[in-house]
Amino acid sequence: MDLTQNEQKVKDFMFNKFIPALHRLVSTSDPVKYQTWNGNTCRQSAVFGLVYLRKLLPEYEWTAWDGDFSDIHRGQRVQYNHAWIHGVDKKNNKGLLVDLSRIDRERLFLPVKANKYPKNHPEYKNMKLITKKKINIEDRLSEEEFYTNLKGEEFIKRLNLDIIEV
User: Fold this and answer.
1) Considering the entire predicted model, what is its pTM?
2) Which residues are registered as beta bridge partners of 76?
3) Edge-to-edge strand order for the sheet containing 108-112?
4) pLDDT at residue 166 above 70?
């Protein structure tokens, strides 16, 4: 399965505009906290990425997920928490797995049959899902974002301004 031309355009926007703007917004809002957390924005990428994907690819039903994983990192087995997005286009029987927040490996915007990371991808072959839970987007948008302390609507307004500047 390949991405459609429109899906490729959305992928390019998310990777080249959305992600840099997101990092710019959160890193300038609280540089110390941003450095302390090593620039981790997986939850922000999943929650706010889903908001954009709903508008850009409305034929998909989008969900954000929070999971615990076991993986090999620098030769050692580690466990960590991570968030990602999954979309299903029921009309065309197609799914997309979107992971916008990876710092140490390739970000993903891939056609998938199920909400699972690809075992045939060299950077994800050792990754094992331990648990996962759907993120309630509406609840998250009503809460203050970790780095900026802005609630969802205000955060998105600021993010839109940063996207224009990227």
Assistant:
1) 0.93
2) 73
3) 108-112, 94-99, 76-89, 61-73, 128-135
4) no
